[in-house]
Design a protein that fits this description.
44% of the residues lie in helices and 14% in strands. The protein has one domain: Rossmann fold, CATH 3.40.50. Helix 8 runs parallel beside helix 10. The strands form 2 sheets. Strands 3-2-1-4-7-9-8 form a 7-stranded mixed beta sheet, with helices on both faces. The protein has a two-stranded antiparallel sheet with strand order 5-6. By secondary structure, the protein is an alpha/beta fold.
Length: 296
Protein backbone atom coordinates (compact mmCIF):
# COMPACT_ATOMS: atom_id res chain seq x y z
CA UNK A 1 0.00 0.00 0.00
CA UNK A 2 2.85 2.42 0.79
CA UNK A 3 4.37 1.90 -2.68
CA UNK A 4 0.99 2.44 -4.34
CA UNK A 5 0.37 5.59 -2.33
CA UNK A 6 3.84 6.92 -3.15
CA UNK A 7 3.12 6.50 -6.86
CA UNK A 8 -0.22 8.22 -6.42
CA UNK A 9 1.36 11.12 -4.56
CA UNK A 10 3.84 11.58 -7.39
CA UNK A 11 0.94 11.62 -9.84
CA UNK A 12 -0.93 14.28 -7.86
CA UNK A 13 2.22 16.38 -7.45
CA UNK A 14 2.97 16.34 -11.17
CA UNK A 15 -0.61 17.22 -12.00
CA UNK A 16 -0.62 20.18 -9.66
CA UNK A 17 2.45 21.78 -11.24
CA UNK A 18 0.54 24.52 -12.99
CA UNK A 19 2.24 26.72 -15.59
CA UNK A 20 2.25 29.75 -13.27
CA UNK A 21 5.22 31.70 -14.67
CA UNK A 22 3.02 34.66 -15.62
CA UNK A 23 1.52 34.70 -12.11
CA UNK A 24 4.87 36.01 -10.90
CA UNK A 25 3.84 39.41 -12.29
CA UNK A 26 0.96 39.47 -9.84
CA UNK A 27 3.34 38.49 -7.01
CA UNK A 28 5.44 41.53 -7.92
CA UNK A 29 2.29 43.65 -7.73
CA UNK A 30 1.43 42.29 -4.27
CA UNK A 31 4.99 42.84 -3.08
CA UNK A 32 4.94 46.47 -4.21
CA UNK A 33 1.66 46.97 -2.40
CA UNK A 34 3.07 45.53 0.84
CA UNK A 35 6.24 47.65 0.84
CA UNK A 36 4.42 50.83 -0.24
CA UNK A 37 4.67 53.33 2.63
CA UNK A 38 1.33 54.95 1.86
CA UNK A 39 -0.57 52.29 3.76
CA UNK A 40 -3.38 54.57 4.86
CA UNK A 41 -4.01 56.47 1.64
CA UNK A 42 -7.38 55.98 -0.03
CA UNK A 43 -5.74 54.64 -3.18
CA UNK A 44 -3.67 52.10 -1.26
CA UNK A 45 -6.69 50.95 0.76
CA UNK A 46 -8.70 50.41 -2.42
CA UNK A 47 -5.91 48.37 -4.00
CA UNK A 48 -5.43 46.32 -0.81
CA UNK A 49 -9.15 45.59 -0.62
CA UNK A 50 -9.06 44.25 -4.17
CA UNK A 51 -6.04 42.08 -3.35
CA UNK A 52 -7.88 40.68 -0.34
CA UNK A 53 -11.03 40.01 -2.33
CA UNK A 54 -11.19 37.97 -5.55
CA UNK A 55 -8.24 39.52 -7.34
CA UNK A 56 -5.86 36.62 -6.64
CA UNK A 57 -8.11 34.22 -8.53
CA UNK A 58 -8.95 36.60 -11.36
CA UNK A 59 -5.22 37.14 -11.92
CA UNK A 60 -4.69 33.36 -11.92
CA UNK A 61 -7.30 33.04 -14.64
CA UNK A 62 -5.42 35.61 -16.69
CA UNK A 63 -2.11 33.81 -16.17
CA UNK A 64 -3.26 30.20 -16.66
CA UNK A 65 -5.63 28.84 -19.29
CA UNK A 66 -9.09 27.68 -18.27
CA UNK A 67 -8.27 24.23 -19.69
CA UNK A 68 -5.24 23.92 -17.45
CA UNK A 69 -7.19 25.10 -14.41
CA UNK A 70 -9.86 22.47 -15.04
CA UNK A 71 -7.27 19.76 -15.59
CA UNK A 72 -5.62 20.51 -12.27
CA UNK A 73 -8.79 21.32 -10.35
CA UNK A 74 -7.22 24.62 -9.35
CA UNK A 75 -9.79 27.13 -8.15
CA UNK A 76 -9.24 29.54 -5.29
CA UNK A 77 -11.98 29.92 -2.70
CA UNK A 78 -14.13 33.00 -3.05
CA UNK A 79 -13.65 35.23 0.00
CA UNK A 80 -17.35 35.27 0.87
CA UNK A 81 -17.51 31.47 0.76
CA UNK A 82 -14.30 31.25 2.80
CA UNK A 83 -15.86 33.42 5.51
CA UNK A 84 -19.03 31.33 5.50
CA UNK A 85 -16.95 28.22 6.03
CA UNK A 86 -14.93 29.70 8.90
CA UNK A 87 -18.07 31.08 10.54
CA UNK A 88 -19.49 27.57 10.87
CA UNK A 89 -17.35 27.34 13.99
CA UNK A 90 -18.45 30.75 15.36
CA UNK A 91 -14.88 32.04 15.84
CA UNK A 92 -13.98 34.67 18.44
CA UNK A 93 -10.90 36.88 18.76
CA UNK A 94 -10.13 35.18 22.08
CA UNK A 95 -9.87 31.74 20.46
CA UNK A 96 -6.45 30.19 19.99
CA UNK A 97 -7.37 27.47 17.54
CA UNK A 98 -4.67 26.24 15.17
CA UNK A 99 -5.92 26.27 11.58
CA UNK A 100 -4.50 24.23 8.70
CA UNK A 101 -5.23 24.52 5.00
CA UNK A 102 -3.34 21.67 3.28
CA UNK A 103 -4.12 23.03 -0.20
CA UNK A 104 -3.95 26.72 0.61
CA UNK A 105 -3.64 28.26 -2.86
CA UNK A 106 -3.37 32.02 -2.39
CA UNK A 107 -4.59 31.74 1.20
CA UNK A 108 -8.27 32.72 1.07
CA UNK A 109 -9.32 30.25 3.78
CA UNK A 110 -6.43 31.26 6.05
CA UNK A 111 -7.28 34.92 5.47
CA UNK A 112 -10.86 34.23 6.53
CA UNK A 113 -9.61 32.69 9.78
CA UNK A 114 -7.13 35.51 10.39
CA UNK A 115 -9.89 38.12 10.17
CA UNK A 116 -10.94 36.91 13.61
CA UNK A 117 -7.43 37.10 15.11
CA UNK A 118 -6.40 40.04 17.29
CA UNK A 119 -3.81 42.54 16.10
CA UNK A 120 -0.89 44.03 18.03
CA UNK A 121 0.68 47.49 17.76
CA UNK A 122 3.46 46.28 15.46
CA UNK A 123 3.22 44.33 12.21
CA UNK A 124 5.91 41.89 13.30
CA UNK A 125 4.19 41.05 16.59
CA UNK A 126 0.88 40.60 14.80
CA UNK A 127 2.28 38.29 12.13
CA UNK A 128 4.24 36.27 14.71
CA UNK A 129 1.05 35.70 16.67
CA UNK A 130 -0.88 34.78 13.53
CA UNK A 131 2.00 32.54 12.50
CA UNK A 132 1.49 30.43 15.63
CA UNK A 133 -2.10 29.72 14.61
CA UNK A 134 -1.90 29.37 10.83
CA UNK A 135 -0.53 26.45 8.84
CA UNK A 136 -0.72 26.12 5.10
CA UNK A 137 0.76 24.03 2.34
CA UNK A 138 0.74 24.12 -1.44
CA UNK A 139 2.85 22.61 -4.17
CA UNK A 140 3.00 25.97 -5.94
CA UNK A 141 5.66 28.28 -4.51
CA UNK A 142 4.06 31.40 -5.96
CA UNK A 143 0.79 30.58 -4.21
CA UNK A 144 2.57 30.27 -0.87
CA UNK A 145 4.26 33.63 -1.42
CA UNK A 146 0.89 35.17 -2.33
CA UNK A 147 -0.62 33.77 0.87
CA UNK A 148 2.03 35.40 3.07
CA UNK A 149 1.83 38.73 1.24
CA UNK A 150 -1.95 38.80 1.46
CA UNK A 151 -1.88 38.00 5.18
CA UNK A 152 0.49 40.95 5.59
CA UNK A 153 -1.88 43.17 3.62
CA UNK A 154 -4.74 42.06 5.85
CA UNK A 155 -2.79 43.03 8.97
CA UNK A 156 -1.90 46.41 7.45
CA UNK A 157 -5.46 46.98 6.31
CA UNK A 158 -6.60 46.50 9.89
CA UNK A 159 -4.73 49.66 10.82
CA UNK A 160 -1.27 48.53 11.88
CA UNK A 161 1.43 51.14 11.28
CA UNK A 162 4.59 49.82 9.66
CA UNK A 163 6.96 52.51 8.31
CA UNK A 164 9.38 49.91 6.94
CA UNK A 165 8.64 46.29 6.03
CA UNK A 166 11.24 43.57 5.73
CA UNK A 167 10.07 40.77 3.44
CA UNK A 168 12.41 38.29 5.14
CA UNK A 169 10.76 39.07 8.48
CA UNK A 170 7.35 38.30 6.98
CA UNK A 171 8.64 34.89 5.94
CA UNK A 172 10.09 34.26 9.40
CA UNK A 173 6.85 35.26 11.12
CA UNK A 174 4.79 32.76 9.10
CA UNK A 175 7.01 29.65 9.20
CA UNK A 176 4.21 27.09 9.00
CA UNK A 177 2.94 28.25 5.62
CA UNK A 178 5.20 26.43 3.24
CA UNK A 179 5.73 24.76 -0.11
CA UNK A 180 5.12 21.02 -0.06
CA UNK A 181 2.77 18.10 -0.60
CA UNK A 182 0.29 17.84 2.26
CA UNK A 183 -0.41 14.20 1.36
CA UNK A 184 3.02 13.01 2.44
CA UNK A 185 3.58 15.25 5.48
CA UNK A 186 1.79 13.71 8.47
CA UNK A 187 3.43 16.06 10.99
CA UNK A 188 1.63 18.96 9.31
CA UNK A 189 -1.59 17.79 10.96
CA UNK A 190 -0.20 17.50 14.48
CA UNK A 191 -1.98 19.68 17.07
CA UNK A 192 -4.32 21.15 14.45
CA UNK A 193 -7.71 22.21 15.81
CA UNK A 194 -9.55 23.14 12.62
CA UNK A 195 -8.69 21.97 9.13
CA UNK A 196 -9.97 24.21 6.32
CA UNK A 197 -10.09 22.48 2.98
CA UNK A 198 -10.94 23.36 -0.62
CA UNK A 199 -8.78 20.74 -2.36
CA UNK A 200 -8.07 20.12 -6.05
CA UNK A 201 -10.99 18.45 -7.83
CA UNK A 202 -8.94 16.72 -10.53
CA UNK A 203 -9.27 12.95 -11.02
CA UNK A 204 -6.43 10.49 -10.42
CA UNK A 205 -6.23 6.70 -10.33
CA UNK A 206 -6.85 5.16 -6.93
CA UNK A 207 -4.04 3.02 -5.51
CA UNK A 208 -4.61 -0.71 -6.08
CA UNK A 209 -5.01 -1.46 -2.39
CA UNK A 210 -7.33 1.45 -1.66
CA UNK A 211 -10.17 0.08 0.46
CA UNK A 212 -12.78 2.59 -0.63
CA UNK A 213 -12.17 3.24 -4.34
CA UNK A 214 -11.23 1.63 -7.63
CA UNK A 215 -10.34 3.40 -10.85
CA UNK A 216 -10.93 7.14 -10.89
CA UNK A 217 -10.95 9.06 -7.63
CA UNK A 218 -10.82 12.78 -7.01
CA UNK A 219 -7.82 14.32 -5.32
CA UNK A 220 -10.37 15.88 -2.98
CA UNK A 221 -11.29 12.45 -1.64
CA UNK A 222 -7.65 11.63 -0.98
CA UNK A 223 -7.19 14.89 0.94
CA UNK A 224 -10.18 14.07 3.11
CA UNK A 225 -8.97 10.53 3.78
CA UNK A 226 -5.44 11.66 4.62
CA UNK A 227 -6.72 14.36 6.94
CA UNK A 228 -9.02 11.96 8.77
CA UNK A 229 -6.13 9.54 9.19
CA UNK A 230 -3.68 12.07 10.63
CA UNK A 231 -5.72 14.61 12.61
CA UNK A 232 -5.94 14.14 16.34
CA UNK A 233 -9.07 13.70 18.40
CA UNK A 234 -11.02 16.87 19.04
CA UNK A 235 -10.23 18.29 15.60
CA UNK A 236 -12.75 19.48 13.02
CA UNK A 237 -12.67 19.45 9.23
CA UNK A 238 -14.54 22.17 7.35
CA UNK A 239 -14.36 21.41 3.66
CA UNK A 240 -15.67 22.57 0.31
CA UNK A 241 -15.92 19.46 -1.82
CA UNK A 242 -17.15 18.49 -5.30
CA UNK A 243 -20.77 17.43 -5.51
CA UNK A 244 -19.76 13.93 -6.60
CA UNK A 245 -18.36 13.20 -3.15
CA UNK A 246 -21.64 14.04 -1.47
CA UNK A 247 -23.94 12.24 -3.91
CA UNK A 248 -21.74 9.12 -4.13
CA UNK A 249 -21.78 9.07 -7.92
CA UNK A 250 -20.33 5.74 -9.04
CA UNK A 251 -17.51 7.30 -11.03
CA UNK A 252 -16.27 9.12 -7.92
CA UNK A 253 -15.58 7.30 -4.69
CA UNK A 254 -14.84 8.99 -1.40
CA UNK A 255 -13.54 7.68 1.90
CA UNK A 256 -16.55 8.57 3.98
CA UNK A 257 -17.82 5.21 5.17
CA UNK A 258 -14.50 3.49 5.87
CA UNK A 259 -12.58 6.50 7.18
CA UNK A 260 -15.38 7.91 9.28
CA UNK A 261 -15.97 4.51 10.84
CA UNK A 262 -12.26 4.12 11.52
CA UNK A 263 -12.22 7.31 13.57
CA UNK A 264 -15.81 7.05 14.88
CA UNK A 265 -16.62 10.32 13.16
CA UNK A 266 -19.82 11.96 12.02
CA UNK A 267 -20.37 14.22 9.02
CA UNK A 268 -22.93 16.89 8.14
CA UNK A 269 -23.43 18.53 4.77
CA UNK A 270 -24.41 22.14 4.23
CA UNK A 271 -25.25 23.38 0.77
CA UNK A 272 -23.51 26.52 -0.47
CA UNK A 273 -23.61 28.05 -3.91
CA UNK A 274 -20.41 29.03 -5.70
CA UNK A 275 -21.79 31.01 -8.58
CA UNK A 276 -19.17 31.17 -11.30
CA UNK A 277 -17.22 27.96 -10.78
CA UNK A 278 -17.63 24.93 -13.05
CA UNK A 279 -18.00 22.60 -10.04
CA UNK A 280 -20.85 22.87 -7.58
CA UNK A 281 -19.36 22.31 -4.13
CA UNK A 282 -20.78 21.43 -0.79
CA UNK A 283 -19.43 22.24 2.60
CA UNK A 284 -18.66 19.13 4.58
CA UNK A 285 -18.33 19.38 8.32
CA UNK A 286 -16.53 16.44 9.89
CA UNK A 287 -16.03 16.16 13.62
CA UNK A 288 -13.60 13.86 15.33
CA UNK A 289 -14.60 12.44 18.72
CA UNK A 290 -14.16 14.34 21.99
CA UNK A 291 -15.52 17.56 20.56
CA UNK A 292 -13.58 20.08 22.74
CA UNK A 293 -12.69 22.71 21.70
CA UNK A 294 -15.02 22.51 18.72
CA UNK A 295 -18.46 21.64 20.04
CA UNK A 296 -20.75 20.81 17.15
Amino acid sequence: MEVEMALLLNSITSLTQLPTEHYSLYIDQLTALVVDRGHQSAEWCAQADEALDGEAHSELRKAVSAKSLRLHGAYFTKPKLALLLVRLRSPKTTDRYVYLDPACGAGDLLLAAARYFPVWPSLEDTLRYWGQLLRGCDTQELFVIATKLRLTLLALRRGIQAPEIDLNTIDECLPHIRVGNALDTPNLYKDVDILLLNPPFNTVTAPKECSWAQGGVTSAALFVDYAISHLGTGSAILAILPDALRTRKPEFAWPGESSLARKQMGARFRLQDRDEEPHFPHELEIYLPHSHPKDA
